[in-house]
Amino acid sequence: MSGTPRTLVLSEEEMAAIADAAVADLARRLADRAFRPLYDADTAGHDTVSHEIVDGEALARLHALVQLQRAVERQKDRAAELAVRAGAGYPQLGQACAMSRQGARRRWPGLVTTGGAPATRRTVSPTQHPAPIDRSH
Q: Where is this region: Disordered (predicted)?
């Protein structure tokens, strides 16, 4: 494989903690940008409205996380294609994804034999949306 060799300097637990914090922050920012509150939090006076605000924020963040998960899957596919073009095989793809060589072959069928060309695989379109959030409690 060409490129600069890399070695892991963080533990898997450290990487997971950093990734969790980054994803939580990104989900919050994406939800804040993508959704408009139905109520003004400063003027919400009674418990029902306040409870609906919390529910709406949680659902907006969940919606954002679904979009982020889909984006991560697309990025994984692109990274696998680039790795194969640089010389990686299924054993290296599997190791990078914490799966077996056979698991990598099932995930990206034909990718290694086609030299990094996109494999035919069912993917979620970036414009495909989950069901709309019902905030009409």
A: 104-137
Residue from 56, 62, 66, 59 nearest 126 by CA: 66
The Cα–Cα gap between 126 and 31 comes to 16
**Per-residue pLDDT tens digits for 85-127:** 999 999 999 999 999 999 999 999 999 987 666 555 545 455 5
**Coil, helix or strand at residue 100:** coil
Task: Specify the pTM.
Answer: 0.69
Distance CA 81, CA 96 (A): 13
Distance CA 28, CA 47 (A): 23
The C-alpha atoms of residue 66 and residue 60 are separated, in whole angstroms, by 10
Q: What's the start-to-end Cα distance of the chain, in Å?
A: 55
The torsion of the CA quartet 63, 66, 71, 76, rounded to 10 degrees, works out to 160
